[in-house]
Amino acid sequence: MTRILLRNKLDDCIAAWQKAGFSVFAPVRQHEMSSFGEVQKASDMAFDLVLPERTIKDHFFPQTEPLIKYKIGKQQIDSETMTPPDRKRVFFGVRPCDASGLAIDDPLFGWDYKDDYWFRRRDNSVIVTIVCTEADDFCMCTSVKLSPESDKGADVMLRPLANGAGWQVEAVSERGTALLETIPSLLQENSEPTAPVPQVAEKFDLEKVMEWLASKENFESQFWKDISLRCVGCGSCTFLCPTCHCFDIQDEGDTYAGIRRKNWDSCSFSLFTMHTSGHNPRNTQSTRWRQRIMHKFNYYRGKFGVNSCSGCGRCTRQCPVDMGITETLQAISNLPR
Amino acid sequence: MGIQEQYRSEAAALLSSGEVKLVIGFGEGSTADRRRPLFARTPEEAQKFVLDAACIANLSTYLVTEGLLSDGKKVAVFLKPDGIRSVNILISEAQLKPDQVVILGYAIDKAEITALEGRNISDFSLGEEIRSHTPPPHILQEAERIEEMNPAERFEFWKAHFSKCIKCYACRQVCPMCYCRRCIVDVNQPQWVSTSSHTLGNFEWNIVRAFHLAGRCAACGACDRACPVNIPLRLVNYRMGKEVIDAFDYCAGENSSQKPVLASFKQDDPETFIL
Ligand code: SF4
Ligand code: SF4
Ligand code: SF4
Ligand code: SF4
Question: Residues B18-32: what's their mean pLDDT?
């Protein structure tokens, strides 16, 4: 026997969480785009998406975020830290790859300096994932050793019932257990079978890829130039990636007063590495594309012991010229050894 | 022989004779319905070209890649009329030399694809076709719906869309007319335009781009298709294009000897807005 949550109890569930002080977020469709947004009732949620176009990252590391307000006077400088509100949030219906993305980024934001802007939100959020029942051509979680039923980054994991009436519910962290304690009467014992998990074929041999990337002589390989010829150097693949985390600090205002902000930045842009002198150590798209791959499957692993990719496939799904990391890693995996 | 085979062998011949150093066309994509840009430098690579009704991207954007044509050599490229129109605009803006580009032209009408006659830009006369071309009905309907809104409603419409923008600059990067080596939003000594992607910053960016494309857009739709958050950029382009036709009787890309409308003047230009 396991516990289940019926779909027709979802409105009550949202109300119970709101009563317990949580704001509830879920995949929504708004203005021709799918993303995570705040919901008031079950019918606000978009359940039919394989994956929303935007990632859950937006709600932990927003595209632009005020850090401090400053005012420079004749005698003194006043500043005020603008920490994000620590409101409690439930994220409902997160896909396992997006939840993994958060877990992958945790060590980065907490490494030499604990990023309050990230962790305040992390500590106050409960992640409720739904195991996938559908995958599209771009999904590649299994290729990076995750799966459509991975519980990485999840607090509560839901498995859709085969009859579509609801989900089997399982707490996978203390935070998850605590969340379920707010809705005891809405859960019921049941032994309905769950829907099958889709088979997502592995698209490349990750070990082979990592080995090739680790070999210094491949850094200057012609491979990088050939594979990245058509990349137009936009920020689409990085900004839609649940694990890409680069940012730039900008002061917005004038000499005397303003706001210091943390804005998304992308290694795909030539400006990303441009020195004040005008010299650019990554002055071609191929060196920038190489950086993106190396960072994800070599440097990040070296520092934090995990690859910086959860296999969501968005970088390929959304690339205007049909690039994305899958093709590159497949090509590396198939190189003659 | 179908158009695909015809252009494969023509591309191979151009490469083996040394007439061009590179052919830019399409290859298979990551799924059955996708096509991706393919660059062929050898006759063998040219055999991988695919050309069918799914080849809708405007490849002319690669012609302005930094350094590509600086050696004076020629490049061949697969283009449909909006790509040819783009080449006209680029030549009129002195960004391309007409004789460096060999055009392998094609047109798609419903699912039918046909080869276009001519290889040099001067072989194509688009003038009438562009002028009389009406955008697809769905764009016209959307545009009409917006025209009918009052200013407050219209502002809300664009606010909802622009607040989604993430400043990924995919619209700019795929656009053949966005060839500036350093876009104004990337000029950072000082930072003229804020990099922040909040609603105000997104308005700034999208308005800057709309103005910079006024009278220069080839209506290829590349930016609209590239936008990962589905902002209807087609409507901005359509309206700006219409504005320029109405105000100056000018339609960008009709031929390559046009004078760019906002970079030239006539003695008898109306000066209604100057006091
Ligand atoms: S791979 Fe695609 S999405 Fe990424 S920078 Fe290049 S063109 Fe843009
Ligand atoms: S690199 Fe691509 S597949 Fe991996 S997490 Fe980022 S967007 Fe998803
Ligand atoms: S603005 Fe958009 S539609 Fe116009 S030429 Fe550029 S990419 Fe094409
Ligand atoms: S492609 Fe879309 S999201 Fe990206 S900068 Fe342009 S308008 Fe903004």
Answer: 97
The whole-number pLDDT of residue B274 equals 65
Q: What percentage of chain B exceeds 70 in pLDDT?
A: 99
Mutate to test the pocket of ligand 4, among B204, B227, B234, B237 (most ligand atoms within 8 A of CB): B227
Chain centroid to Cα A332, Å, comes to 24
Q: Residue A86 domain-assigned?
A: yes
Of B38, B166, B194, the CB nearest to A252: B194
Q: Which domain does B177 fall in, by range?
A: 137-263
Residues spanned by the domain of A20: 2-190
pTM (predicted TM-score): 0.96
Q: Per the structure block, which two tokens stand in for B31?
A: 């799924």
Mean pLDDT in residue range A46-55: 96
In testing the pocket of ligand 4, which one of B197, B212, B229, B235 has its CB within 8 Å of the most ligand atoms? Answer: B229
- Partner residue opposite B196 with nearest CB, options A261, A271, A321: A261
Residue B153 · residue B37 · CB < 8 Å: no
Q: What is the ipTM of this complex?
A: 0.95
Determine the residue among B196, B197, B202, B230 to mutate to test chain A binding: the one whose Cβ has the most chain A Cβ atoms within 10 Å: B196
Burial environment of residue B268 by CB neighbours within 10 A (0 to 12, 13 to 18, 19 or more): exposed
pLDDT digit string (tens) for A275-298?
999 999 999 999 999 999 999 999
Do B67 and B163 have their domain in common?
no
Q: Ligand 2 centroid to A171 CA: how many Å?
A: 26
Return d(Cα B85, Cα B105) in angstroms, integer: 11
The residue among A165, A94, A81 whose CA lies nearest residue A131 is: A94
Domain end residue (candidates: B90, B124, B158):
B124
pLDDT digits (tens, 9 = 90+) for A127-172: 999 999 999 999 999 999 999 999 999 999 999 999 999 999 999 9
